UniProtKB/TrEMBL annotation:
Gene Ontology CC annotations of this record: endomembrane system; plasma membrane
Functional description taken from the UniProt entry: NDH-1 shuttles electrons from NADH, via FMN and iron-sulfur (Fe-S) centers, to quinones in the respiratory chain. The immediate electron acceptor for the enzyme in this species is believed to be ubiquinone. Couples the redox reaction to proton translocation (for every two electrons transferred, four hydrogen ions are translocated across the cytoplasmic membrane), and thus conserves the redox energy in a proton gradient.
Subunit structure comment from the entry: NDH-1 is composed of 14 different subunits. Subunits NuoA, H, J, K, L, M, N constitute the membrane sector of the complex.
Residue runs in coiled coils: none
Species classification: Bacteria, Pseudomonadati, Pseudomonadota, Gammaproteobacteria, Lysobacterales
Subcellular location: Cell membrane; Endomembrane system; Membrane
Protein name as catalogued: NADH-quinone oxidoreductase subunit N
């Protein structure tokens, strides 16, 4: 050990530059929050937003360079930089949406900003994991921060119940994942993902033990995605948490979960890909069916979006099940686009809500087009993109993962995806129908968009991106393909 320490070169840590800036800035804000009065705690939140944008710029620009450090525990490559850029920008969106919502209700505290930053740091570590240890470290940093964020409103019994369910089920899923990792370690004798791959490929692994570990790992990944049948926590958490927290949990972590899946499955367990591809395809089909048909019965907009998230996870896993560079690139593209779309979907609820009026029932939007035609048009665009209606970017995202499934020889899964996309269009179109063709409920709370803090303008940009990004479809897909050397 002494020999290892004596030859340590600090210059080797350059690939960790974004994470080092992130953790240094977060701890600096932690100290600053101790000295800032509650009336000025917006300073901490604003500086947290700036920190996210600065770290995103470091990732996108490739500052620090690529490489494998910390004895193979941390990997920085094009895939990691692309995912981190998406995670940081989605988190920055959540920061802006959160400020007026939480401040109006008296829920904002500096701890919320810090928890969101630590969760983001956990996601960054997760997508750069080169070892089972780093996977678990990043995952638990994300999970523990998320549990605390869900119970932001301590006086709300719904939030407390959601937080408790999330914690208990999350602990169960973490235990399953850890047990699976221990079996993989027992089968290969190493925690390093590259060495696990080499051991499994060279026949040095205990096959039965490795496959048993793979089953538990896939189950743990499915829970973190919110894939059926491991989606039990998702509707309650999405409805119980404050809307900006739901926005945060529902966008960036999906990119991180994909990163975890690709590192574990495609990176470490590719020699047994014929087995886990079948499991991922089954999870994809089940998520598509359960998510879409359960969403049809919802009257609460947040619960509807929760079940629709399950269906979107099904589409995302379709790309992973297809496999290969094209399938993985399609899944990455879908995860990035879904993060932007999900932010817009929950952002519209944040924008329309008031203290004492959460604007989360579908009937709350009756007749909105007659009162606020611009907002109704923007919401129409968000719902159309979620439904996969051309020319919105959501259509092209669904098309790419269906092509990925076809390229992987999964015709049956592609057919399931197409049928479920048609079914899913119904509940999104119901929101549009309510806005344009129904009369407002007499005595209902007047729905007016927030103008505070530029949130309305942010939502307009966020919703507009769902159409504008279609123009840049080919460059975006080429960028995603480059992460897999395609």
């Amino acid at each position: 050990m002494m020999g290892t320490l004596s030859t340590f070169n600090p210059a080797e840590l350059w690939p960790l530059l974004p994470e080092l800036v992130m953790v240094t800035g977060t701890f600096a804000l932690l100290v600053l929050d101790l000295f800032v009065s509650p009336r000025r705690n917006g300073i901490v939140h604003a500086l947290g937003f700036v920190l996210l944008l600065a770290v995103a710029a470091l990732c996108v620009a490739g500052c620090g360079g690529h490489g494998t450090v910390l004895n193979g525990m941390f990997v920085r490559d094009t895939l990691a930089d692309l995912m981190k850029g998406g995670i940081l920008l989605a988190s920055a969106l959540a920061f802006v949406y959160a400020w007026p919502f939480l401040r109006e209700r008296g829920l904002y505290k500096g701890e919320i900003t810090l928890l969101m930053l630590f969760a983001t740091l956990g996601m960054m570590l997760l997508v750069s994991a080169g070892s089972l240890v780093m996977v678990y470290l990043g995952l638990e940093m994300l999970a523990l921060s998320s549990y605390a964020l869900v119970v932001t409103d301590r006086d709300s019994p719904v939030a407390s119940e959601a937080g408790m369910k999330y914690f208990v089920l999350g602990a169960l899923a973490s235990g399953m994942l850890l047990f699976g990792m221990s079996l993989i370690y027992g089968a290969t004798g190493t925690l390093d993902l590259a060495q696990i791959n080499a051991s499994a490929q060279g026949g040095g692994a205990h096959c039965d033990l490795l496959l048993a570990g793979t089953v538990f790992v896939v189950a743990g990944i499915a829970f973190k995605f919110g894939a059926a049948p491991f989606h039990m926590w998702l509707p309650d958490v999405y409805q119980g948490a404050a809307t900006p927290i739901t926005l945060f949990i529902g966008s960036a972590p999906k990119i991180a979960a994909l990163g975890m899946a690709l590192r574990l499955l495609d990176g470490g367990l590719s020699p047994v890909s014929d087995r886990w591809h079948v499991m991922v395809a089954a999870l994809s089909a089940l998520s598509l069916i359960v998510g879409n048909f359960a969403a049809l019965m919802q009257t609460n907009l947040r619960r509807m979006l929760a079940y629709s998230t399950v269906s979107h996870v099904g589409f995302l896993l379709m790309g992973v099940a297809g496999g290969g560079a094209e399938g993985n690139a399609a899944a990455l593209f879908y995860a990035l686009i879904y993060a932007v779309t999900s932010a817009a979907a929950f952002g519209l609820i944040t924008l329309m809500a008031r203290k004492g009026f959460e604007a989360d029932e579908i009937d709350d939007y009756k007749g909105l087009a007659s009162r606020q035609p611009l907002m109704a048009a923007l919401i129409l665009g968000v719902m159309a993109s979620l439904a996969g209606v051309p020319p919105f970017i959501g259509f092209f995202a669904k098309l790419t993962v269906i092509e990925g499934a076809l390229n992987g020889g999964l015709l049956w899964l592609a057919i399931v995806g197409i049928i479920c996309a048609v079914v899913g269009a119904f509940y999104y179109l119901r929101v549009i129908k309510v806005m344009y063709f129904d009369q407002p409920v007499e005595g209902a709370h007047p729905m007016l968009a927030h103008d505070e803090g530029g949130v309305k303008w942010l939502f307009m940009v966020n919703a507009g991106l769902l159409l504008v990004l279609s123009i840049f479809l080919q460059p975006l897909m080429a960028w995603c393909r480059s992460a897999f050397g395609a």
